[in-house]
């Protein structure tokens, strides 16, 4: 006799057909220590994200039983901070690996939609002056509006045979251009550039350059390393310092530039999906770029909420060394004049 085989819907058995949303996991049922160790963030921070993203994550769906915003956010945070879709992560909140992937996609896009809300340069004069004062207090570098640098994030090889994502080490990556303030808060983040592009070319083509050249930030500048060309709005170190003033300038520049190097390290430390310890991001360049940007948004929100990642011990995978670069020499006479004036005025 044939035995009928029924495919059981476990969610249906557990929750019934009348439930529109599956509340598989309750934040109030676990400790803050558990949330931080498993999802990387404490309860109040997660509640904030639920308030921020809840409406977007509750968009109408054709499915009879949608996953709650809270569960989607936990799934995404679990992936961002662990870099893994391990079964235990899905088991903890009661969803499958496929659902985990959908949750990460949904939360990522919701965060990317809000990137300009959390990542931007200050506009009012008082905040700009505070930005400069903080940089000056850090290492004595006047006029600082931000520190700029690039960092590579490894991705899987695109389906198309596109060599533009192969960097100088022969690995597929995205070259991400970022600017931060003296606390490590990101002021700009462009995460979509192909890994084959050198830092100077990324900056040349970036929206950041257009922003500074069209808005004419005459009373300040960014600080960048020698992989970039000197510009009137971008101060780079002197290649071969000779005078005491030039040595003092380079020392102040180096100490200030270290802020963004620390920022890169701590972002990778908090968001393990970016550090390579679990392998490359297994997404297309576009989706990988969005995941990186989503982590940048979370980085800024965490600092806004007093969660200082610099005070957290770094564990696990050690960041891979960045791309080597050639020393760039400026051909901009006006930029050279601005730097020389800075040397005479503040470092002589």
UniProtKB/TrEMBL annotation:
One matching Pfam family: DDE_Tnp_4
Keywords: Cytoplasm, Hydrolase, Metal-binding, Nuclease, Nucleus
GO cellular component: cytoplasm; nucleus
GO molecular function, one term: nuclease activity
Cofactor or coenzyme needed: a divalent metal cation
Boundaries of every DDE Tnp4 domain copy: 148-300
Subcellular location field: Cytoplasm; Nucleus
Main subcellular location: cytoplasm
Role according to the record: Transposase-derived protein that may have nuclease activity. Does not have transposase activity.
UniProt record similarity statement: Belongs to the HARBI1 family.
Protein name, entry field: Putative nuclease HARBI1
Organism: Corvus brachyrhynchos (American crow)
């Amino acid at each position: 006799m044939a035995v009928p085989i029924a495919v059981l819907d476990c969610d249906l058995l557990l929750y019934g057909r009348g439930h529109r949303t599956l509340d598989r996991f309750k934040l109030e049922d676990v400790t803050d220590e558990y949330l931080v160790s498993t999802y990387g963030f404490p309860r109040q921070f997660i509640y904030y994200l639920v308030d921020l993203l809840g409406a977007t994550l509750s968009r109408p769906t054709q499915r009879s039983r949608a996953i709650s915003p809270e569960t989607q956010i936990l799934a995404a945070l679990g992936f961002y901070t662990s870099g893994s879709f391990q079964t235990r992560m899905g088991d903890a909140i009661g969803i499958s690996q496929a659902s985990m992937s959908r949750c990460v996609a949904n939360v990522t896009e919701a965060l990317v939609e809000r990137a300009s809300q959390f990542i931007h340069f200050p506009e009012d004069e008082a905040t700009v002056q505070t930005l400069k004062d903080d940089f000056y207090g850090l290492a004595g570098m006047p006029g600082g509006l931000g520190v700029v640098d690039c960092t590579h994030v490894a991705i899987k090889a695109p389906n198309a045979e596109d060599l533009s994502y192969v960097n100088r080490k022969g690995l597929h990556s995205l070259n991400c251009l970022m600017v931060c303030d003296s606390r490590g808060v990101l002021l700009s983040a462009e995460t979509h550039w192909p890994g084959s592009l050198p830092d100077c070319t990324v900056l040349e083509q970036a929206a950041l350059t257009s922003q500074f050249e069209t808005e004419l930030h005459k009373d300040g500048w960014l600080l960048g390393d020698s992989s970039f060309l000197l510009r009137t709005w971008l101060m780079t170190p002197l290649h071969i310092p000779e005078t005491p003033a030039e040595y003092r300038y380079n020392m102040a520049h180096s100490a200030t530039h270290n802020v963004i190097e620390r920022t890169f390290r701590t972002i990778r430390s908090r968001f393990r999906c970016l550090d390579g310890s679990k392998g490359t991001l297994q997404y297309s360049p576009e989706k990988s770029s969005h995941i990186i940007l989503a982590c940048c948004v979370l980085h800024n929100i965490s600092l806004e909420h007093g969660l200082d990642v610099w005070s957290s011990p770094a564990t696990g995978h050690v960041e891979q060394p960045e791309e080597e670069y050639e020393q760039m020499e400026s051909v901009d006479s006006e930029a050279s004049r601005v730097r020389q004036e800075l040397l005479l005025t503040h470092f002589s």
